[in-house]
Amino acid sequence: MAVEPTPDPLDRAVHAARSQQPEGWVELTGSIMSRVRAIVTPSAPLLTFAQDETPAHDDQKSQTYVSARVVTAAVRRLLQRDPTHAPEGIDLQVDDERLTEIQIRLVAAYRVELVALAEAVRSEVLATIRDLVGPDPELDRSAIGIDFVDVTPGDPNKT
Amino acid sequence: MSEQEASPGQPTDEALVRAARLGDHEAFQGIVERHGPAMYRYAVRLVGDTTDAGEVTQEAFVSAWRSLPSFAGRSSLRTWLIRLVYRRAADLQRHRRATPIGDDLLSRLTPPAADNPLQTVLDAELLAALQQALNELPWHQRATWLLREVEEMSYEEISIALAMSIGAVRGHLYRGRRTIAERMARWR
C-alpha cells in the first residue's frame, strides 16, 4: 500500500493535530457536569401560602418555605417553552421572606406582538408562581415586570 | 464546519449562554459538548499530560459556570473559554516543572485511524515529534503557536485569550514557528 506524497511533514502533523479527538473526553464531560450540578448557590427562602391565603404550616405548625432558586427555575422553564420568546433575566425581590416582585427580561422573536405577549407571559408566570408559593394575597399581576431587551430573527431559544 | 459552530437547528452560543446564565444545566452541557473537545485538546497539548489537562479543563468549566453572569460577550464564547483554560494551565505551570512527554500521552493523542494504515502510523509519529517539539518551546510560544496553528484562532482572538498585545502574539508566534520548523526539519 503506497503512502501518498506529503508536501510538508509539519503541515501534516498540524493537520493531524487539528482533527484529533482526545481520548477520555466522554468521561471528562460526565465529571464536569457532576461538578457543575453539585454547585448550589445561596438562595432566599420564600414563605408559602395555604388556600385561605394565610402562611402555610406543616403538621408541626412550622411555616413552609420554597427556595427562590426553585421558583426561578420553574419560571425559566416556562419562559423557554415557546418559540416567541426566551428569558434573558429573572430577578426575584424578596422582602421579609415574601416574594414581592418579579422582574423578567425577555428576548422576543421578530414580528411578535409585544404587548399581547407581555400580557400572556404575565398571566402564565403568576400561575406558575402561585403553584409553588400558594395564593399570596399581596402578589398579583402588577408584581410582575416584563422588559423586552432584544429581538432575534428566529426562535430566541435557539438564536 | 468546525466542531465549535452550531449545527443547523441547534441553539447558537448566544442562546445557550442566555439559558445557562439562568441556571439551565442542559444548556450548559450543550456548551461543554460544543467547546469542550477543543478546550481539552488545547489543554493536553499545552500541559503535556492528560490527567493535568483533564483537571485544567474541568476547573475551567466550573469557573465558566460560576462566571457566566459576568460574561459580557465582548469576545466570542470560545475565546472566553480558551482564556479560562489558559489561566488554569498557567496556574498549574507555576507550580510544577515541565513534564517530559510519556508513552501514555502519545498513545492517547493518536488520531483516528485513516483508510491507509501506513499513513496513520506516519501521522502518529509526526504528532509525537510535534508534541516533543512543543514541549521544548517556552510557555508563551507554545500557548500562542497552538492557538494559531491548531485551533486556527485569529491574532486578535489569541491576544484576548492570552491577555497580551497583538504585537506580543506576533513575536511569540514568530519565534515558536521558527523553532518548531527547525525541530521538524529532520522529517523532510
Keywords:
heterodimer; A: 159 residues; alpha+beta; GMP Synthetase, Chain A, domain 3; three-stranded mixed sheet; two-stranded antiparallel ribbon; 5 strands; 35% helix; 24% strand; flat; B: 188 residues; mainly alpha; Rna Polymerase Sigma Factor, Chain: A; 70% helix
Structure characterization notes:
The complex is a heterodimer of chains A (159) and B (188). Chain A is of the alpha+beta class. Helix content of chain A is 35%, strand content 24%. Chain A is built from four helices and five strands. By secondary structure, chain B is mainly α. Helices cover 70% and strands 0% of the residues of chain B. The two termini of chain B are 31 Å apart. Chain B has helices at 13-21, 25-47, 50-67, 77-94, 103-108, 117-135, 139-150, 155-161, 166-184. At the A-B interface, helix 1, helix 2, helix 3 and strand 3 of A face helix 1, helix 2, helix 3, helix 6 and helix 9 of B.
> How would you name the oligomeric state of the polypeptide chains in this document?
heterodimer
Number of helices of chain B: 9
Can you tell me the CATH topology of the domain at 44-152 in chain A? GMP Synthetase, Chain A, domain 3
For this structure, the CATH topology of the domain at 1-99 in chain B is: Rna Polymerase Sigma Factor, Chain: A
Mean pLDDT of chain B: 87
Spans of at least 5 consecutive residues with low confidence of chain B: none
Terminal CA distance of chain B: 31 Å
Give the helices and strands of chain B as they follow along the chain: HHHHHHHHH
| Helix coverage percent of chain B | 55-70%
CATH architecture of the domain at 1-99 in chain B: Orthogonal Bundle
Query: Which structural category do the helix and sheet elements of chain A fall into?
Result: alpha+beta
Largest interface: A-B, 44 and 54 residues
Please state roughly what percent of the residues of chain A sit in beta strands, choosing from under 5%, 5-15%, 15-25%, 25-35%, 35-45% or over 45%: 15-25%
> What is the radius of gyration of chain B?
17 Å
Q: Could you tell me the number of beta strands of chain A?
A: 5
Biggest sheet descriptor of chain A: 3 strands, mixed
What is the 3D form of chain B?
globular
